[in-house]
Amino acid sequence: MPAPINPFKKALREGKRQIGCWAGFADPYATEIVGTAEFDWLVIDGEHAPNDIRSLMAQLAVLDGKHSHPVVRLPVGNDWLIKQALDIGAQTLLIPMVETADQARGLVRASLYPPHGIRGSGAALARASRFSDIPDYVKTANEQILVIPQVETAKGIQNLDEILKVDGIEAVFIGPSDLAADMGFLGDTSQQPVQDAIQSAIKTIAAAGKAPGILAVEDAAARRYADWGAQFVAVGIDVVMLAKAARTAMANWR
Fold it and tell me: What is the 3-state secondary structure (H, E, C) of 103-167?
């Protein structure tokens, strides 16, 4: 029995647009609720949400068999952390602050079993192999792993062409907020130089035959990025959705 198919990777390879959402509550109950909306993908955020390896694993579990594919965003691209995330069952990883081809190459290497990488082969006790219930896991897992570098600095944009040449990189995510901050427009992604950089990056990624991705919390921005060619777009953040709904409800009663 081979490793399970990664439906998100398959959809991106087929050129299908994938609409997603951020899961930032660091709690399986909340993630399961958001999953009922049937977004194509959900980012389980380990960078800015208070997740640890156990809370990430619990959220992967509640999404098993659901329509929404879990994308685990790690805080950093450490080899050991990538190994842990893959062993608990993640198939798609989003790694922030990637600025060079060497960084991207290291991420791919950490995510693959030898001879293509350095991922430790102790899958017998891992959730990813269903605790040895998938006998061919280590032989077939590489094909189902997707590592997405998050390019979100001026340096990363400058090196985007080289990042896209790295074997094993099939998608690149643009981080608009950090990009704006690095360009001198802290908290304001609407500035024209930032928007120009995003549009250029999306077109560059698509022209390389790779899938461009991005986050937008406003519908107009999400539609604009999609029109520019973004193939996987996160259109909301669960924490922000709840906060806005609660504040609106109270405002209506004041």
Answer: HHHHHHHHHCCCCCCCCCCCHHHCHHHCCCCCCCHHHHHHHHCEEEEEECCHHHHHCHHHHHCCC
In a domain, 235, yes or no: yes
2 part of a folded domain:
no
* Domain tally, the chain: 1
Catalytic residue among 48, 67, 69, 116: 48
- pLDDT tens-digit profile, the chain (254 residues): 999 999 999 999 999 999 999 999 999 999 999 999 999 999 999 999 999 999 999 999 999 999 999 999 999 999 999 999 999 999 999 999 999 999 999 999 999 999 999 999 888 999 999 999 999 999 999 999 999 999 999 999 999 999 999 999 999 999 999 999 999 999 999 999 999 999 999 999 999 999 999 999 999 999 999 999 999 999 999 999 999 999 999 999 99
Whether pTM > 0.90 for this model: the answer is yes
> Which domain range does residue 92 map to?
7-253
We report the CATH number of the domain holding residue 121 as 3.20.20.60
Q: Is residue 178 part of a domain?
A: yes
Would you call 67 a catalytic residue per the annotation?
no
In a domain, 160, yes or no: yes
